[in-house]
Structures are given as C-alpha cells and as structure tokens.
Amino acid sequence: MAFELPKLPYAFDALEPYIDAKTMEIHHDKHHAGYTSNLNKAIEGTELDGLSIEEVLQKGSDKAAVRNNGGGYYNHKLFWEIMGPNGGGQPSGELAEAINKSFGSFDKFKEEFSNAAKTRFGSGWAWLIKQNDGSLAVCSTPNQDNNLMPNTACAGKPILCLDVWEHAYYLNYQNRRPDYVEAFFHVINWNKVEELYKG
Ligand code: MN
Prior knowledge:
2 domains; minor pseudopilin epsh fold; Helix Hairpins; mainly alpha; binds manganese (II) ion; 3 strands; 3-stranded antiparallel β-sheet
C-alpha cells in the first residue's frame, strides 16, 4: 500500500499575505510530492511496506532514505493541517491551559517556539510536542527528523510544527527567517492543534 500525497486542505493562496501562493504550490506539489514518492520507493517490497507512517518512522529510521522521506511525508502532512486561512490569535480551552502550565504564558511559549525555529542551524523543524506525562515541550530537529523517531532529543507527539527549510520561505522572505516565523503565528489553526493535543 503506497502512501499518497495528502491534498492541501485549502487553496494555494489561502495563507496570503503570510505565506505566498507560489511557495505553497512548489512546497506541496514538488517538495511534499517528492518525499512521498521517494518514501514509497524506499519501502516497496520491504518489511515496512503496508505499515502506518508512525510505524514506518519508528521501525525504519535507521535507513537514511526512509528517515528523510518518511519524515518529509509525515512532517509536511502535519504542517498543512495545523495552518489555515482563518488562523492566528491564541488557543483556548484545554490547550491554552496546558500551554500556560508548561510555559507560564502564551507569550513565553511563543518566544520559546520562535527561538527554536530561528536558531535551528541549516534545515529542520521547530516542534510543540505533547510528552508522555501530558506536559508540553518545544524543541527543534535537523533535516526531516521528528519526535516519533527513536533516539530523538525530544520524544513526544507532535501537535504543532514549523518548517524552517529555506524552500519554505525563501521566495518571499529570502534570508529573513525571523519574519517568516512571526508570520507563521498568523496562520496557525489552533482548533486543529487542540484536537491533536486532546487526541
Ligand atoms: Mn518543506
């Protein structure tokens, strides 16, 4: 059973002016499509074929092609879901309480998450994860690594992520990664993040 490129849940231009349509189109139709197709090639005919993506990441991450493309498939799928055209603002309900408990305040969380995104050297991701004890933590990973892979520096369930590869922002922001990170907060779909937190 091959993995399929997930459909973008909104139009390419839905996140403008924060993320431009051309970047979204190339990012989804070329980059995410490439990871998906290369993941399928990497697992075809192996013992990983037919497993869920979570299982593939847990069992196959010692193989570079599986790690890079499996991570690329999973990370981008989550990334599209946790953004949206009516996003931004602040979370509410249980998620807001959990953020306050783990970070002190929303502003403290935002600062920590933004720093993780801005200081990741080279390509990678910033994450908000739910740990086994239910608390939240922020971290970043290199390349297409994520928190589901064994031996990660920050294990947990990813509930929010930000792609800081240059392909995610260079057309519009060039070298200004901090501006892109700030813009991202205007398109976060907090309802989806809360759903992942509770799930
Ligand atoms: Mn990307």
